[in-house]
Design goal:
Blueprint lengths: L6 H6 L2 E7 L2 E6 L2 H20 L5 H32 L4 E7 L2 E6 L6 H28 L5 H20 L7 H14 L2 H28 L5 H10 L1
Parallel strand pairs: 2-3
Antiparallel strand pairs: 1-2, 3-4
């Protein structure tokens, strides 16, 4: 969720318009191709192939692509939740863009009230957690040996993780906006609340990068994701 922080990049670089959802334009930025490819191979070979060890490499990558595409649809739903709540608060949403580090709902302006900020910020993580619960249903009902049970488990876990990470209390994460809204409501000083949430975000970003680098030193390639997330924060 943002108020134009990614808008300039989205306008200057190549984006593809997918259409409209509830009247809100949805686009894919060129950098989305990079993360989609990385996720496809990471999910397919790093997770699905290990659980379903009777699959060929091509089959594992194929199911990885399906899971990655489903995850990006969930990410779009996360951003759409922000946008729809913003609309309820009288704030127009320009475009939802999927890009390298996830998604961005471009808002026409910042909320005027702390309660609106809180509602808009918490809508995204709430939708992700709800989607995680939805994917728990097929995971519970399908046979454990089913490939779709494995895919459902991954999507349940990924959405739960997406919701949890976004609730970390550091700006510009949704949790940082929740923190800013709460501090704004208590102190009635929006700028002070923004400074505190920004500092918290910088600390969380540095800690995430540091932990990711530590994992890479110990030859855990998963650390690259933490470095990328921390750098973005």
């Amino acid at each position: 969720m943002g108020c134009g922080s990614f808008a300039t990049l989205a306008e200057e670089a190549m984006s593809v318009r997918l259409g409209r959802v509830f009247g809100i334009p949805v686009e894919i930025h060129a950098t989305w191709i990079i993360i989609f490819a990385l996720l496809t191979y990471s999910i397919g070979l790093g997770f699905i192939a290990r659980v379903q060890n009777d699959l060929t490499t091509e089959q594992a990558v194929g199911y990885g692509a399906i899971a990655a595409l489903a995850l990006f649809i969930c990410l779009m739903a996360h951003e759409l939740a922000h946008a729809l709540v913003a609309r309820k608060c009288g704030i127009r949403t320009g475009v939802i863009t999927l890009f390298l580090f996830g998604g961005q709902a471009q808002l026409s302006r910042e909320p005027d009230e702390w309660s609106h900020e809180l509602a808009i910020a918490i809508a995204g993580p709430a939708s992700s957690i709800l989607l995680a619960l939805v994917f728990v249903i097929p995971y519970t009902l399908l046979p454990r040996e089913s490939i779709w049970c494995t895919v459902a488990f991954y999507l349940a876990f990924a959405n739960a993780l997406l919701g949890a990470v976004n609730l970390l209390p550091g700006y510009p994460l949704d949790g940082g906006r929740v923190l800013r809204a709460i501090l704004w409501g208590i102190s009635r000083r929006r700028m002070l609340a923004t400074r505190v949430a920004t500092i918290a975000g910088e600390l969380i970003g540095l800690a995430t990068v540091g932990y990711g680098l530590l994992q890479l030193i110990h030859k855990d390639t998963g650390g690259i994701w933490l470095v990328m997330i921390g750098w973005y924060v």
